[in-house]
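Why do we bother with holo predictions? Because pocket geometry can differ from the apo form. Keep that in mind while you read this record for zinc ion.
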Amino acid sequence: MSHLDIEQPLFPDTRPHIWIQWKGTRVCCDVRCTCGCLWHYDGGFFYFFQCPRCEKYWEVGTHMPVYEATKEEAEPCVKHLQTP
Ligand SMILES: [Zn+2]
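The structure, written out:
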């Protein structure tokens, strides 16, 4: 089963979201496993990981929700995209 089998029903075209093409860049994130383990990762190439407690393997997803923001919230670092 691919992560897309799980993500695509959660992110239909009617729900605002982005699709990420990971390019091996650095990431800093908090990670929670189904076993309840919560840990922090700061590094690169975060495509797959193994839980340090239960040793289950996970694949990092490629869809992420987006939330409408005000101009004031976005202004410091907004990216102006081109119309497709
Ligand atoms: Zn775990």
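DSSP finds two helices and six strands in the chain.
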